[in-house]
Amino acid sequence: MSPIHNLPLSRRRLLTALAAGTASLAMLRLMSNPARAAGRKNFSLRAAPGRARLVPEPHGETPAWCYNDAVPGPELRVRQGERLRVTVENALAEETTVHWHGLRVPNAMDGVPHLTQRPIGVGETFVYEFDAVDAGTFWYHPHQRSFEQVGRGLYGPLIIEEADPPRVDREVTWVLDDWRLTQSAEIGEDFGNRHDMSHGGRIGNTATINGRVPEEFAVRRGERVRLRLVNAANARIFGLDFQDHAPTVIALDGQPVTPHEPAGGLVVLGPAMRADLILDMTAEPGSRVQVIDRFYQDLEYRLIDLAYDDAPLRDSAPNWSVALPANPLPEPDPATVRRHEIVFNGGMMGDMVMREMGGSMGEGGSSGMMGMMHGDGIWFINGKAAEGHVLDPMLTLERDRSHVIAMTNATAWHHPIHLHGHSFRVISRNGAPTIHREWQDTVLMAPRERVEITFVADNPGDWMFHCHILEHQAGGMMGVIRVA
Amino acid sequence: MRKSIIAVLAASVLGVAGYLTLDTAVQAEEVTLYKNPQCGCCEGYADYLRENGFDVTVEPTHELVPMSRSSGIPDGFQGCHLAFIDDYVVSGHVPVATIDRLLAERPGIKGITLPGMPQGSPGMSGVKTGAFEIYAIGDGAPHLYATK
């Protein structure tokens, strides 16, 4: 298919979906948001092999896969209500797609190969077009062989600005990543190996912020920074300790949350998750404060230093309001909710946890030695290990109705579980109601944890539901939820 | 305890010649065990080695795949943790009798591996469902070293 044909096709699909009366009232209202008059922004992304300066001299540049010759790709930035038109050119040697992570887009724009679109072939172009419905911190990445394509550097931030954001001195985006580099600063070629797939995923040895091993972040006492954090790593979970600073979380996965200090002072972000922080710089002028990643016990490391200028900006933190305006999310109705159960099984030590907590690893499935040796599925959702993106729906949700999905992580590992096309409220963990009932699109489940989420299934189509540890996804931890 | 196990093993497997190697094995053997930071079974295996007289240092790492590969262990034969004992690498939940044999015989190989994490193996829960096949790792393809 020539690039010229891609545009009408994608556009037609979108229009068909709307015109056929399949879009819900809520989504229709979002699509015809009056703010759309604000206009359309055009972007171009070119996925191609390139080089990235991940680690400083005397190391060399790292051969990577880049959007627009950079890691991360360009920060796409629009205002809420604007329309994005993104032309994606594939200059890789393999097929690709782009998924707009966390955005509530029409199904045909969701970027899942074979499920929502034909993959973008080598040398082909595809045009994505959708409205920026929710303000917040989002990101984009391929959904085709993502464990390698994202792992080699294909990702970028997508920021949708509020019309009336909280006042800050500076707004900064940190896209966090983690690389498995060799001594010569090249990316280790061991993508997709069974050990990583059956344990905690491909966790590397080099953490970067915005594609660079960071040294310091220059700040001034009294300064207020809005820090947009995006975890673009395949598998590393970050647990950031800002030490004497008291960050206030104002949004999770792009969606506003009651401003609060994170539990235990640690900002925990699983792969694909985001947090917006208000960070008041309260240390002494001329001082340095380390930001430490403490997630993995005995493997703590300094991520970056906050380096204070000798001259303060002001003596104490400002008292400006930090709350964000709400996004137009439909509120689920507990009275009419439909309930669904999902159990995750598999992985190393999975037999053991399954015996304790139940579930199924399907016919002949095994996480043990035989699975390691013979290439069976490693991870199971309700007893099934996925192969490929085109799957019979594991759940069909009645459209425009409220649903609760009760999820049991009957495995020995963490899983950040991502649902496409919707945001959901996280309402309980291990039976206890959550304090903030936070909206997320990716919820981090601890080993053996039970989590309940709820949402209105207002976006019709077949949507991916998967673990965002990309090696787990590739190992079968993926399913399709149909909204119809 | 460790000394007696070595002695018994050496006597049964190698006869008198084995005793001569005891000079180097009298001290508690030092082991560095690299494991995934979130893997509990590997701690169980470290305890098992300690109970059998080894002096074990546990080091969490995310680098098990590159380390296993550079130790010559093909992906399909990797255990879930990696121990360095003397000049050998021991991958996975290898029973101590096999390690003792390795240290007594001192073959010209890089090490041994029990792939995966079979149920009922040392440090693992569950019931043993079949013989453990432990492979020798060298320059060529892995070959069977012991069946336990």
TrEMBL record, chain A:
Keyword Metal-binding: yes
GO molecular function, one term: oxidoreductase activity
GO aspect biological process, one term: cell division
CDD domains named among the record's database cross-references: CuRO_1_CumA_like, CuRO_2_CumA_like, CuRO_3_CumA_like
InterPro entries: Cu-oxidase-like_N, Cu-oxidase_2nd, Cu-oxidase_C, Cu-oxidase_fam, Cu_oxidase_CS, Cu_oxidase_Cu_BS, Cupredoxin, TAT_signal
Domain Plastocyanin-like intervals: 59-163, 171-261, 388-483
Protein's name according to its UniProt entry: Multicopper oxidase with three cupredoxin domains (Includes cell division protein FtsP and spore coat protein CotA)
Organism name: Thalassobaculum litoreum DSM 18839
UniProtKB/TrEMBL annotation, chain B:
Record keywords, A-Z: Signal
Pfam families in the cross-refs: DUF411
InterPro entries: DUF411
Signal peptide segment: 1-28
Domain of life: Bacteria
Protein name: Uncharacterized conserved protein
Classification lineage: Bacteria, Pseudomonadati, Pseudomonadota, Alphaproteobacteria, Rhodospirillales
